[in-house]
């Protein structure tokens, strides 16, 4: 997957914040792939999302994936 420099920077920022929090809790750091997975999972838990010009109303967890 090719990501823009802006997207990579955003993911890097989230990764830094998450891993600082995990470190202070005595947990191991997460890799970039896991951060992306967590972001995707979080999006499926939202009532609606707006992606690529499409407004998606979801009816529950993982509804957009069914």
Structure, explained:
With 66 residues, the chain is α+β, with helices and mostly antiparallel strands. The chain has one domain. The protein has a two-stranded antiparallel sheet. It has two helices and two strands. The longest helix has 20 residues, at 5-24. The chain is globular, with a radius of gyration of 14 Å.
The pLDDT mean sits at: 90
What portion of residues belong to β-strands? 5-15%
Strand order of the largest sheet: 1-2
Secondary structure: number of strands: 2
Helix content: 40-55%
- H/E series: HHEE
**How far is the N terminus from the C terminus?**
23 Å
What is the number of helical segments per DSSP (H or I, 4+ residues)? 2
Count of discrete domains? 1
| Shape assignment | globular
Rg calc? 14 Å
Structural class: alpha+beta
Overview in brief:
The protein is of the alpha+beta class. It has helices at 5-24, 32-44; strands at 48-51, 54-57.
Q: What structural keywords apply?
A:
single chain; 66 residues; alpha+beta; two-stranded antiparallel ribbon; 2 helices; globular
Describe the secondary-structure layout.
Blueprint: H1 5-24, H2 32-44, E1 48-51, E2 54-57
Antiparallel strand pairs: 1-2
